[in-house]
Write a structure and sequence with these properties.
This protein is an all-alpha fold. Among the domains are: 22-237, Alpha Horseshoe (Serine Threonine Protein Phosphatase 5, Tetratricopeptide repeat), CATH 1.25.40; 336-411. The chain has 20 helices and two strands. The protein has helices spanning 46-57, 61-74, 80-88, 101-117, 122-135, 143-160, 165-176, 187-202, 207-216, 227-236, 241-245, 247-254, 257-273, 277-293, 297-307, 318-334, 337-341, 351-367, 371-389, 397-411, and strands at 22-23, 34-35. Helix 7 runs antiparallel to helix 8, helix 9 (207-216) runs antiparallel to helix 10 and helix 10 (227-236) packs antiparallel against helix 12. The longest helix is centred in the last third of the chain and has 19 residues, at 371-389. Mean pLDDT is 85; it is low at 1-29, 393-420 and 422-439.
Length: 439
Amino acid sequence: MKPMLRSLPLLAAVALNAPAFADESHAHGGHLGKVSFPTSCDPKVQPAFERAVAMLHSFWYSAGEQAFRDVLRDDPGCAIATWGIASILMSNPLAGQGASPKGAESAQAALDEGRRIGAKTARERDYIEAAAAYYQDFAKRSERERQVARARAYETVAQRYPDDDEAQIFMALYTAATQTQADQTYAAYLKAAAILEEQFRKYPDHPGVAHYLIHSYDAPPIADKGLVAARRYAGIAPDAPHALHMPSHIFTRVGAWQESAATNLRSREAARAGNEPDEAYHASDYLVYAYLQLARDAEARRAIDEAMKVPGISPRFVAPYAIAAMPARYVFERGAWSEAAALRPLGSNYPFVEAITYFARSVGEARSGDLAAARRDAEQLQVLQAALAAATTATGRPRSRCSGWRRRRGSRSAKAGPTRRSGRCAPPRIWRIATRSTS
């Protein structure tokens, strides 16, 4: 799950019973790729367990959690299934938001159950404790502290079991999740990518490897390195909505707009068919942006209208973000400043979501000559920025750019605004506080 950086950027072992890399094409949801995760569980649940791990690798949250719970129901002695439950409840480990308080409570209950059951192998116990490292003292630690603890725990597991490729893959994922925006060398991303590239050569049909490679190259200077994985992932797990969307993180960064539009259209439809509203909104947001870059404005408008009909969104930030971002992208990319000035905030619980609309509206007002309204909205951005400061850092550029437009309009009556699609006044990334990656 990472929102576009180039958009309107205001606007993510012991082989006991397992067949080696069983094909998951018969899984719930169909084709999910190939995963091998040996366990000490009853052989009858091994295929189902591996299907659940494949869902975990493609961030298929609701279906994946239920799949792990079904494994535990069918084999009450399968303690490692509780690791899967706790892992999927972390939500997108690269988005910076992490588990919800309710999710953390459910995850801790699952881990406690796993400990009570007692895994039959040291390896399985180590996996359970690695997940537990993330949830320890959950309410007292920041998400950043939880991310670092998780990465260290999985690095220990990977070192302890060097022949366990799943351990290496999960270590890479959770290493990538520690990447910060401040580090423009992308050290964590590239450390993860080096591990994953080796795994990709061994397992070209593994959903997690392709998926996490995309995340590990999801930054402008290195995005072209992710094209091979991006063009493979949707084919590896074509029935997972997130797998259809993720390639567009790379396509967006390299300007492959036709490919981005096509894969997000497929993702949106798969998400709607599978009752995954958050994924439908997220794919729609990328779809709208791709259409706008192609100057297919009417299709962008239709995509927004279709997205707004999707019901049943979760409490996560994903859908509210898209609901705010799509209209803002639509007016900015078209230079429709009077429409921008008429945007209305959602009233969500997420300051970075609200900031999208306030910023877009402030620029629209300034460029339309309503300086008093622009000042009011720019002041509201300062309030939102202060609300974010306790959790993370904000750039400060939203206020300076809005203020710049106000000063320009206040000092002379020149026509404001760059040409359409020029990108010369792209809004800043104030929303990128902790949302490095949405699904």
